[in-house]
Amino acid sequence: MTEARKDQVRALLKGIETGDPAAVAVVNEAKYIQHNPQTEEGSEGLAALFKRLSKSSPRVNLVRVFADGDYVFAHTEYDFARRNIGFEVFRFEDGFAVEHWDNIQARKGPNALGHSMVDGPTSAIDLDRTEANRELVRGFVNAVLIGRDRAALDRYVAAEVVEHHPDHADGLLARVESSAKFRYDQNHRLLAEGDFVLAANEGAIGGIHSSLYDLYRIAGGRIVEHWDTVEAIVPRAEWKNDNGKF
User: Which helix (H) or strand (E) holds 230?
Assistant: First the structure.
């Protein structure tokens, strides 16, 4: 079941390349809830989006795909009119995707350490540690990112972290110490498979209301690798559905 759902999401997202409306067959349009504020509600809206994007000869690379219960989450590269990096999250019900969230930003980098926004391990291990790793990240987000407890950083983060943030080779530390730029207000979702945990957060970057998605890899009870995307949340007047970003 888990692998089948991952394959369904792979097929769905690869459909962006072709614009084939059949690619959205995995979506239950009667129940589908779309949380991208700039996409119309329902699978018709998704099919129209795919058709429009296909005209620019897009390329879609699914770098990582994980599953957590009824959820599948993917780390993706998009090459449209510009190159983007994204996280896509789908909730399944009765074998169909019924809800969708995403977080996309322009691709930048590599950073000062030579890491891109997507390189690194792609397969989950330590599946028996899934819940422990989820709770580790929950503690980190609440204590360090939201609570800004600098002293707690070493409790959750390894001495050396492979950082994929394009602008900050010390990205996790920068989030704690640069309160004028990074502000985490609320965690909305933690999705995990093995040593990978995705945190969907709401906050602000440089004072702009934003969605902050952070993917962590855990080893030895500490965060050892970090990827992220940041997306400004468009003003309410520009939303094409009423479901909200989260």
Answer: strand 222-232
